[in-house]
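Q: what sequence does this backbone want?
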């Protein structure tokens, strides 16, 4: 058989039985060719296909290959004979081929606490006692060294369940190590069920003089870890790990405590929520020194002692006599949370407050927000959009109750004092307050919002914005869609209504009714509505809107839409090349039910976004025309 005859890809849909005939090879030297592999591996059996994977652009080998044998026994022999052998310069790894995408994820078991010399074939043999094993994999670092964890994939979920039940009473050991097994969970699930808590700024700031001696700082961190571990041991809770560090900016300690289960972590977090502290951090420098004497100083990576008792004793005695002893665990800005993934989990205590007036100071807004609860941290900055001269702030409340109270009471329209402060601190007295979503959630929400704003969305058969009355009105030039004498923008008619042409629709104030449907000329009611022409002429160019944004945002919102509609008309007309279609599209773009003023302003900045909305508008017009 020639290699050119076996130069084919692995079938995308491979059954479990077929997978037993395939091996996957890693860490191949760049100089290895398919001919080389064929000559080596044909020793163990008939080869049906062989493929070295290559980079699509450079066509260089990725150091990986697939080989399909005629019989499963040959694939098994290849793994035994060639795994961890040197091919040219590299030690290759020969593994069973496994198509993860077609496997039952619930039949996957996570293996932890593996020894450095764990053997995949021996593990596979051990796990095969419980069912059909599709794959055993041990993870490696960037240098190819085996790590202490991996996975075993069974063919059926029942087999994986049998293994988990078995180890409850009969644990499995391998190479002298007791294996820790649990059913596989996706990364997001493992993060949600975190078993660690994070306590920050749980004691008063250390005096600056202690930072002049690194060994004293190390001793304080070590003392805190011993105090925390002792507390939980006395209360019958097993702590897997406790890591304490002093923040050099705040000079306050923080710790991450890992428990045996997520339930223990949540229970201790509940204590923090109720007490605004935790008993594990209430002690004293004298007791910390006693514990260090009892357990002895820690050692460095080179096995040397981090410090001696004599080097730290004086500093600890001074702290014990100070009423601000850091080991008392007293703090004004204590903060806590589960150790979650920041990308996945929002913290309900972190609030984004928007629409703050430009002249409001950080101190003023903090004093106002502190009336609802304990504020741990607050930052304020101007909004990124230079068109809006307002500020926004991020406020972190200490407890969930503080956050809930703030989000409730700040909108209390019966509290005259709060209403008065809101008028003084927020533009138009309007507060915008929301929980700050995580990065991935913000991205997801942005996509949802974009979809909901899309004018192509027409779930209820939404009518195009058409004039609610007929009449032969004069045509208008592209640059001025609002002809003199027309006041207000016509509203969207009820379903089934419509009209015969007409000028570009303008938004009509809520308190005005459109003229009755008749053929008589339109008569304007004098002194009832200020014609928008003054504003249209005042802001006849978008550059004027930009340069006078503060003045522009002071005019009625209804007129802001009319001005922007007038300016958008030419942009849309340049694309559509049809006056009537342009009127309809622009009518959609300034529709209050579809877009906020800020969204319309962004259309002038993002031509691609505007083009998308134009295309969707034209599609909707076409659909309505065909009905």
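A:
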């Amino acid at each position: 058989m020639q290699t050119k005859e076996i130069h084919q890809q692995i079938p995308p849909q491979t059954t479990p039985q077929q997978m037993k005939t395939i091996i996957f090879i890693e860490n191949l030297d760049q100089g290895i060719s398919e001919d080389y592999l064929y000559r080596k591996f044909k020793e163990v059996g008939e080869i049906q296909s062989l493929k070295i994977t290559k980079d699509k652009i450079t066509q260089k080998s990725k150091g990986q290959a697939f080989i399909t044998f005629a019989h499963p026994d040959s694939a098994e022999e290849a793994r035994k004979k060639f795994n961890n052998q040197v091919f040219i310069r590299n030690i290759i790894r020969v593994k069973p081929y496994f198509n993860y995408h077609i496997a039952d994820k619930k039949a996957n078991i996570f293996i932890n606490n593996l020894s450095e010399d764990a053997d995949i074939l021996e593990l596979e043999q051990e796990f095969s006692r419980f069912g059909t094993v599709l794959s055993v994999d041990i993870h490696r670092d960037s240098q190819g060294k085996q790590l202490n964890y991996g996975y075993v994939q069974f063919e059926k979920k029942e087999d994986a369940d049998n293994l988990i039940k078995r180890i409850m009473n009969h644990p499995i050991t391998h190479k002298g190590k007791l294996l820790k097994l649990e059913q596989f969970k996706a990364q997001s699930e493992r993060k949600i069920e975190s078993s660690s808590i994070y306590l920050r700024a749980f004691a008063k700031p250390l005096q600056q003089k202690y930072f002049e001696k690194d060994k004293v700082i190390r001793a304080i961190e070590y003392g805190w870890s011993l105090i925390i571990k002792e507390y939980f041991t006395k209360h019958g809770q097993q702590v897997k790990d406790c890591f304490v560090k002093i923040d050099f900016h705040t000079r306050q300690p923080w710790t991450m405590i890992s428990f045996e289960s997520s339930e223990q972590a949540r229970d201790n977090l509940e204590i923090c929520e109720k007490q605004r502290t935790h008993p594990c951090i209430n002690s004293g420098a004298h007791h910390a020194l006693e514990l260090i004497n009892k357990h002895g100083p820690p050692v460095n990576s080179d096995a040397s002692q981090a410090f001696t008792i004599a080097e730290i004793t004086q500093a600890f005695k001074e702290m014990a006599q100070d009423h601000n002893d850091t080991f008392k665990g007293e703090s004004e800005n204590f903060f806590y949370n589960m150790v979650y993934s920041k990308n996945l989990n929002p913290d309900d205590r972190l609030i984004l407050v928007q629409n703050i007036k430009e002249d409001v100071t950080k101190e003023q807004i903090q004093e106002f927000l502190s009336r609802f609860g304990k504020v741990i941290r607050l930052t304020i900055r101007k909004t990124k959009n230079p068109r809006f001269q307002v500020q926004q702030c991020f406020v972190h409340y200490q407890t969930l109750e503080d956050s809930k109270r703030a989000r409730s009471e700040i909108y209390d329209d019966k509290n005259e004092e709060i209403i008065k402060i809101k008028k003084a601190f927020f533009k138009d007295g309007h507060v915008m307050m929301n929980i700050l979503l995580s990065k991935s959630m913000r991205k997801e929400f942005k996509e949802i919002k974009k979809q909901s704003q899309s004018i192509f969305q027409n779930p209820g058969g939404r009518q195009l914005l058409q004039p609610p009355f007929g009449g032969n009105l004069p045509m208008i030039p592209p640059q001025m869609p609002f002809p003199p004498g027309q006041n207000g923008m016509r509203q969207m008619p009820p379903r089934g209504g419509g009209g015969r042409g007409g000028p570009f629709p303008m938004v009509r104030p809520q308190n005005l009714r459109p003229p009755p449907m008749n053929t008589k000329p339109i008569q304007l009611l004098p002194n009832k509505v200020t014609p928008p022409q003054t504003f249209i002429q005042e802001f006849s160019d978008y550059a004027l809107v930009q340069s006078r944004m503060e003045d522009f945002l002071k005019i009625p919102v209804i007129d802001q839409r009319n001005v922007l509609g007038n300016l958008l008309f030419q942009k849309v007309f340049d694309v559509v090349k049809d006056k009537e279609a342009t009127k309809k599209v622009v009518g959609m773009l300034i529709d209050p039910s579809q877009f906020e003023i800020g969204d319309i302003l962004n259309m002038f900045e993002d031509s691609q976004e505007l083009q998308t909305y134009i295309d969707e508008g034209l599609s909707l017009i076409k659909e309505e025309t065909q009905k």
